[in-house]
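User: Let's play a game. I give you a shape written as tokens, and you guess the letters that built it. Ready? Here's round one.
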């Protein structure tokens, strides 16, 4: 459902909803997670820490490890 919604958005607008890139001190995956959080808000702590590799990307508080300075951009504004 999530992937389909992203594709529909891209077909309707002609723009990519997410376009993650590597940066200084963070990976493409870190940037992708940050973009999702900027759009939809923070993940619930339990959800953020439930994955096999969660500790690579999230602190014990459920915050992103590599990118702390987020620019929130709600979906309605996109």
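Assistant: Ready! My guess for every position:
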């Amino acid at each position: 459902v999530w992937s389909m919604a992203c594709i529909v958005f891209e077909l309707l607008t002609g723009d990519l909803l997410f376009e993650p890139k590597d940066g200084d001190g963070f990976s493409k995956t870190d940037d992708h997670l940050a973009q999702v959080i900027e759009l939809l808000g923070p993940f619930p702590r339990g959800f953020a820490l439930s994955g096999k590799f969660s500790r690579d990307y999230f602190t014990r508080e459920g915050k992103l490890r590599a990118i702390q300075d987020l620019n929130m951009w709600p979906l309605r504004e996109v």
